[in-house]
Specification:
By secondary structure, the protein is of the alpha+beta class. The protein is built from seven helices and 27 strands. It starts with 25 loop residues before the first helix and ends in a 21-residue tail after the last helix. The strands form seven sheets. Strands 14-13-12-25-24-23-22-21 form an eight-stranded antiparallel beta sheet, covered by helices on one side. Strands 15, 16, 17, 18, 19, 20, 26 and 27 form an eight-stranded antiparallel beta sheet that branches. It is globular and about 80 Å long. A hairpin with a 2-residue loop joins strand 5 (164-166) and strand 6.
Amino acid sequence: MGQSWRVAETPGCVQGCNGPCPSCSFFQKIWYKNDRYCGLLKDDHGPLSSCFSKVDPTEFYQSCMNDVCLNKGEGRAQCSVLAAYVALCQKNGVQVSEWRSRSFCDKQCPANSQYSLCASGCPATCGNLSPPVGCDTSCQESCVCDKGFILSGNKCVPFNKCGCMFNGMYYYLGQTFSPNATCDVECKCTDDGRVLCSKLSCAAHEKCEIRNGVRGCYPFGNGICSIYGDPHYNTFDNTTYDFQGTCTYVAAKACHIEGTHLTPFTVVVENERWYPQSSQNVSVAKLVALEVYGNTLILRRNQIGLIMVNGILANLPMKLNNGSFPVVEAYQDGIFYVIKTDFGLTIKYDLVYHVIITVPSNYEGKTCGLCGNFNYKANDDFQLPDGKTAKDLLTFGLAWKVSVSGVVCDDGCSGDICPNCDEDKKGQLQEQCETLRNPNGPFAKCHNLINPNSYFRDCVYDTCMSDRDHKMLCHSIAAYVADCQNIGTEIKNWRTPTFCRKYLGDS
């Protein structure tokens, strides 16, 4: 039944258990009945016992045991079930005792706040010091702001760091907005709590609308640059080419934005040899870096669950805020790690093979780098930093190289000096990669939107250069899948138990 309600195929998702789901042994069940796991839901003298007569804990206990068994006793599966039971008890007016501790289901609270078993459901905020009429103020578990701090959005800030009230609406410090339906005025909540307004007109490829509760000029549409494999580039203007240097390069950068309200940014990609000991001039992405708002964020190959922010490793997900307003966030979405900005720039990296850069449409003609100039003209993408057109791809690539002190790299290959695939190997690999072009295959719906021919050629070449590595074949096909899904095309399930099977934890 569950599968019948699936909305779409999502990279990295699983369909549940193949065969019988994992279960606990007799001795494990006995162990998980203690108070370190699910026992509090059966303990007649425990901190939750005052609720047993009001809310039957039986179903919660069974769910807790099931979740703990599936996780083999690891993690905090029991904490979620216990918290759900406590919430239902409090909703029914039952006061339970403290059940969390530092060593058991401890509650992590944001900066300048602390855990409370019985907090108000309607806390004071910068925008509303008293609870709204009809708000449920009943007791509930929550994090409450420390003394001298107050909620601004989902963060606790000092009282003097509250944002601005304007026409009955609350705005964070640093937030911009339009106060009327025509967006002919733009206002900003300044750091000293004042609202400053100036005339505005929406630029080309922008429209006046409300997003996330804030009215403003927002772009519609976008440009997508895809970098995958032994770097194959598909630019914002859909030009396809190969460039195999192993240095650091500007993939996309905001250019010629003087006099606009566009935000400056630079996306840098560092490549490395496919195999460190290989003499072949072929390479793949090693890291992706974004410079924006004075910050540098780096996703590095095989650095699972982490992102480097201004030289410091941080766990995902994470957010960078301007005051209380998030301007950059990073998180995992399926097989991709994602960096997303408040102005619509998105970077996806699978930490192995594939980078996707998406820019909003108001950057039309305002980008430069290896991803092109985004002017909807495919014949002038190879522009140098001075605006002139490069004579060849190698010159174009070298022009966007970033010098990094102490790093030894080479400029890749061009034309006839690039390695070629043996004809015998090529014939065998073409059969395996042909699934990309099969008109009756799982990717047929995408063929009219993204031509699969270049992906087919790249699949054959990359798999050949990796000495027919099956994982490289799968990465090549997955690159086409990701680009199709990125524009909203539904792809049928193409992995099977014997072909490119995906396991949890696979890179």
